[in-house]
């Protein structure tokens, strides 16, 4: 073991010791530290001043009680989280997730990833993440509203336009952002539009924000394919999930000439050999809050499956857009055997470590989430710019900025990988490029 390997192993041991029982956080840290070995070999000063240890320790972690009353007058108690991980580049920025699986470790993994993702966008935003173990599924609008109001009654004191600007994530879309913003506005007695992003278009929201993560993931994929002289036009694409990210990835992929051959939710998956009727899917998901099984009942040429997995399909491209660790080593091998040559993560850390190893061994071009799904947060930062200047931009202008940002992220990851003799390894390229910008800012700002 080289001296650098030993140093990195001891950083990691310390992370394990200080953050017991948080496997997703360990996984996210391990992947970044692995990429940083080659940085430390070239530039050992990045280990000075406790930089790596400080980077792995959130600046602040807030955990709070969220009591609310359901429609049957029962008192329910959930747990709320906000992890303010790193503000060296700008105010903390990152989504809120409402899902029963949420715990501190999951919020920390997401917040840690967010630091590097936000750095890669080139925009002045730090990293944070939050959420609750609240399950929005099956709740009435009134229950969702009461929960959001209670959640914000604690969160408001920790956020602000220059401090921390949350957005949506799993289980938090336009409806939830509306209820959260309403309660914030009431508590602070100001229309401070820059405090949340993903707002409605008539009260400070940005065009393209809703579409941005899915569209951005497809723009990234297309850039990645073009380096090999290919493009998404004509490709067969698997998209997992059917939420905000998946829906708009499907829409943009098909608009650019691809055929989306399958999508899913946590109950099952749908095979669509002739492509997806995106208008129908959006109507079912956004207006009717339905399931993918409802799509099959109304669409022609689609079949619903609850056995096997969406990763059994034959395709050229796979875009995992549902949740963390949804694609394991066996799934990855099946994708490779079935012809997939490109994978870009619309979700955060959907591929396990074993899956990424299979992709690497089989020369699959792989876009990690912190690069491929950065379009959402980048457009959130564009929403902040519009709020700060009391302006609102056209769809075309905002979409053009998103495309340029995604192209820059891809080029930055590709160029950085080349500089470190790892051409084509976009994981290493994204980790190193994201890290160096934050690290330089932290070194310049002293030990804080
Ligand atoms: P949504 O809540 O809109 O959709 C989530 C989708 O994933 C649903 O289809 C859901 O199915 C499925 N899903 C969630 N949890 C599980 C699970 N444990 N097992 C199987 N399927 C599951 O969330 P988003 O589309 O906003 O987010 C999807 C991913 O993208 C997340 O990893 C998120 O962190 C990431 N992301 C989102 C951004 C955004 O702008 N929204 C930005 C960057 C990353 P079901 O309805 O059955 O639960």
TrEMBL record:
Q: Would the keyword Nucleotide-binding turn up in this protein's UniProt record?
A: yes
Keyword Flavoprotein assigned to the entry: answer is: no
Q: Where is this site: Important for catalysis?
A: 169
Which UniProt keywords are present, listed alphabetically?
NAD, NADP, Nucleotide-binding, Oxidoreductase
Q: Which SMART domains match?
A: ELFV_dehydrog
Q: Would you name any one GO CC term?
A: cytosol
Gene3D superfamilies noted in UniProt: Glutamate Dehydrogenase, chain A, domain 3, Leucine Dehydrogenase, chain A, domain 1, NAD(P)-binding Rossmann-like Domain
User: Ranges for the Glutamate/phenylalanine/leucine/valine/L-tryptophan dehydrogenase C-terminal domain?
Assistant: 206-446
Instruction: Give the residues annotated as active site.
Output: 129
| One Gene Ontology biological process | glutamate biosynthetic process
Functional summary from the UniProt entry: Catalyzes the reversible oxidative deamination of glutamate to alpha-ketoglutarate and ammonia.
The name this protein goes by in its record: Glutamate dehydrogenase
Species annotation: Corynebacterium coyleae
Gene that this sequence comes from: gdhA
């Amino acid at each position: 073991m080289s001296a650098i390997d030993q140093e990195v192993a001891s950083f990691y041991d310390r992370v394990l010791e200080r953050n017991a029982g948080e496997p997703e956080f360990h996984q996210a840290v391990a992947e970044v530290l692995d990429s940083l070995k080659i940085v430390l070999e070239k530039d050992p000063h990045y280990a000075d001043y406790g930089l790596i240890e400080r980077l792995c320790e959130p600046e602040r972690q807030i955990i709070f009680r969220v009591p609310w009353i359901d429609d049957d007058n029962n008192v329910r108690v959930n747990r709320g989280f906000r992890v303010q991980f790193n503000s060296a580049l700008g105010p903390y920025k990152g989504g809120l997730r409402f899902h029963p699986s949420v715990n501190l470790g999951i919020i920390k993994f997401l917040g840690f990833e967010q630091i590097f993702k936000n750095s890669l966008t080139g925009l002045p935003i730090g990293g944070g993440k939050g959420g609750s173990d609240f399950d929005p599924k099956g709740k009435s609008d009134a229950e969702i509203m009461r929960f959001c109001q209670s959640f914000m009654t604690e969160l408001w004191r920790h956020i602000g336009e220059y401090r921390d600007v949350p957005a949506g994530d799993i289980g938090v879309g336009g409806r939830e952002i509306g209820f959260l913003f309403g309660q914030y506005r009431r508590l602070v007695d100001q229309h401070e539009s820059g405090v949340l992003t993903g707002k409605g278009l008539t009260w400070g929201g940005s065009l393209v924000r809703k579409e941005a993560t899915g569209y951005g993931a497809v723009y990234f994929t297309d850039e990645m394919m073009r380096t090999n002289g290919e493009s998404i036009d004509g490709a067969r694409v698997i998209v997992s999930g059917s939420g905000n990210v998946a829906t708009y990835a499907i829409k943009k992929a098909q608009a650019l000439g691809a055929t989306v051959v399958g999508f899913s939710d946590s109950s099952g998956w749908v095979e669509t050999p002739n492509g997806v009727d995106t208008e129908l899917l959006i109507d079912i998901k956004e207006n009717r809050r339905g399931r993918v099984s409802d799509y099959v009942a109304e669409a022609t040429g689609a079949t619903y499956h609850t056995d096997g997995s969406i990763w059994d399909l034959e395709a050229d491209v796979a875009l995992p857009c549902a949740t963390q660790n949804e694609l394991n080593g066996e799934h990855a091998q099946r994708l490779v055997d079935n012809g997939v040559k490109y994978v870009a993560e619309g979700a955060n850390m959907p591929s396990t470590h074993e899956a990424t190893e299979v992709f690497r061994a089989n020369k699959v071009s792989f876009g990690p989430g912190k690069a491929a799904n950065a379009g959402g947060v980048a457009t959130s930062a564009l929403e902040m710019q519009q709020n700060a200047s009391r302006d609102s931009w056209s769809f075309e202008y905002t979409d053009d900025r998103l495309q340029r940002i995604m192209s820059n992220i891809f080029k930055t990851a590709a160029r950085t990988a080349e500089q470190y003799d790892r051409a084509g390894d976009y994981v290493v390229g994204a980790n190193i490029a994201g890290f160096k910008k934050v690290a330089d800012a932290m070194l310049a700002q002293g030990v804080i």
